[in-house]
Each structure stands twice: as C-alpha cells, then as structure tokens.
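Ticket #399: bound-state structure for magnesium ion.
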Amino acid sequence: MNIHEYQAKQVLAKYGVPVLKGGVAYTPEEAEQVARGLDGPVFVVKSQIHAGGRGKGRFKEPAAGDKGGVRLTKSVDDVRENAAQMLGNTLVTHQSGPEGKQVKRIYVEDGCDIQRELYLSMLIDRATSRVIIMASTEGGMDIEEVAAKTPEKIFTVAIDPVTGIQPFHCRNVAFSLGLKGDQVKSCTRLLMALYRAFTETDAAMLEINPLVVTGAGGVLPLDCKMNFDSNALYRHPDISEMRDEDEENPAELEATKHDLNYIKLDGAIGCMVNGAGLAMATMDIIKLYGAEPANFLDVGGGATKERVTTAFKIILSDPNVEGILVNIFGGIMRCDVIAEGVVAAAKEVSLNVPLVVRLEGTNVDLGKKIMADSGLPIIAADNLADAAQKVVEAVKEAQ
Ligand code: ADP
Ligand code: MG
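RESOLUTION: The complex was predicted; output attached.
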C-alpha cells in the first residue's frame, strides 16, 4: 500500500526524522490557514497524488498555467491562489499515465534553503533478503535513469538483520554522498531513524528524492514516498487508515474487499485461477500462445459460487477483456462444486466474451458434465496448453 508524501513525512516524524513544518489542505481556504501557521516567507504548495515527477508534471486545465504540481510561493495569498488552481485539476506526470491523476489534496510546506539535492532510498533486496540503502549524489533526478546511464553514481549498502543498522553503515553512506563534518553526524542520526521507521512499520520501500543539505548544514527529506507490505498492515492500524482509496485501481480495491488477490494487467485474456503458482503458470502459458493476460487473479482455496461470481464481475469490469480463461484445480474443493459456481456466475453476469474452462481434480467428470449440460457456450479444455490455445483462438475468432 502506498501513502501520500505528507503522510510519509508524518510517519517519519514519529521516529524522530527532521521534516519541514507543513500541513495538508483540501480547499484553498484551508491551504491559506495552513500557510498562516508556518514560518514563511517562502511556502511550497505540493500536489498530493500517488505518482512521482509532480514538479515537472503539467495540469490538464490551462487555467492552472504551465507551472508544475510543486510550486514555490511568496505569500499566503499566493498559496491560496495556487491551491485553487491545483485542487480538482488533473496532473499528468511521467508516472501518472497519460490520463493523469486528479489532485484532491495538497500539502503546504515551509520553503527550504537547498544547498544540495541527494538521493536516498531503502528497500528489501530479494537476492540478499536484506534491507538495502541506496544513495546517490544525483538527487532530484529519475533514479532509473541514473541507474541506466551512470550506475557508478549509486552507492549501495546491505544491512544484516542480526546487527541492524550500525554507525559505520551510516558513515559510509554519508561519505559516498560527499558529506562533511556535522553533516555526517546529521546523516547518521537520520539514517538510524529511517531504518527504525522502515523496519518497525513493515515498509517495503522508502524513497527520499531529494534528500537535501540545507543552508544551515542539516540533512533532511524534502520528498518522501513510502510503500508498505500489505500482508503486515493488520499490525499497523494507524498506517492502514492512511489508505487513500481514490488513488487505487477500483477493481483491485473491490477484490481486496472480497479477499481476492487481483492485479490488473494490460492484456486481453482475463484469468481466474486458484492458487498463486497456478495463476502465474497460466499467465505464462497465455503469453506462450501469443496473447497477454488482462490480470492476475487467485480466487483462493475456497472457490465458492459467490467468490467465483465476484471474480467474474471484477474481471469483466476491465474493458480490455476479450476472453476469459478459468483454470481451477479441484483439490480441497470438488470440481462439480466449482462447475456449478462457474455456470451460475456466467449466467448472473450475462457473459458476453468467450469462456474457456479447464478443470482438473476430484469429480472432474461430473464437473465437465455440469458445464456441458448448462446450455452455456463454455469451451471445455483438458490441460493448460489446450486451455491457453483455445482461449487465444476463441478471442481471435470473435474479432
Ligand atoms: P516530485 O518528485 O514529485 O517532483 P518533490 O517533492 O521532489 O516532488 O519536489 C520537486 C522539487 O521541488 C524538489 O526537487 C525541490 O527542488 C523542490 N521542492 C520541493 N519541496 C520543497 C520545499 N519545501 N522547499 C523548497 N523546494 C522544494
Ligand atoms: Mg521527488
């Protein structure tokens, strides 16, 4: 789960990370109020959307001018005016997709006297199963670009979970960033606090771009992105509350409510599978036969009629879906029960795209009979390859 920049700064502040004074606003008037409570004289008005590159982004409504989604302002009136231009407007950035994202809240923050912009992130490295810190002097830039063009400018250190973060890790990072004297101490305190925040909140990713060295010599995060392990959210009700449903894919949100693991993808073949491994294999084999999956969907072990129906509805809510492949192994669940669920669900949602079903496992013959007798144009398949081929062909024929 992702959260907004201002929320991430709230989380970090709880762990003693220094952040600038600021407040969230939903209306231009609130923005002005927030600004009045800040130190000034420069205030920064920042669009809060779950996409990076806001500063260089552009609004769709020309009324907002061609300034980006992060603006320096010099008076509270200016704050209110810029907030009015941003709120309700759609911001397009290189991460938002061409359709952009509507700005519904903004963050008003004290302006910062920036001396240097650096890059810092923490993430979980699957290869070493450790938290790694990535740092670069190339702050404020797209880090993917830095990694591609000048990988030598990215410094990485892995933290052994047994010892946790140690002062020498921090000093190494600070030196790699070219920090000196008190800045090294400041950076060490910051990294210690960030590591605690990262591990104690079960974060999956923390990106600070830019991390800045201020005129006063301090080191602090100016931007912050945080992402949390969804499976650990039950341990953090305060973070769960930060979820902004407006920022999430509606189909994925609906799936979460029904305990279905659904991830939207860009292809045309909707997949409904039980078990994550089988779901991955199904997506692979669809690709092998020349098509692309429209989604990942694991209906889980208890594929009841209700779950199957909900899953169908979610798959069909994606306008790109041109055919559906149901691939279910009846282990705990019997195939006849699944077949009844598929038939009932297909009738209820008045299915209008080809449906290929591959069933295997307990009572498979009975399951196939139920589908054949249903009067529905369900295409039965015998194995994975057969199923993938049939759905790809059916979609081609339907075109
Ligand atoms: P994004 O990465 O989405 O464009 P940032 O928060 O990184 O948004 O802001 C973009 C740029 O705006 C920063 O690199 C920095 O130069 C400037 N900026 C952001 N916040 C402040 C601030 N409080 N004071 C001064 N400049 C800021
Ligand atoms: Mg940034």
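RESOLUTION NOTES: The mean pLDDT is 93.
TICKET STATUS: resolved
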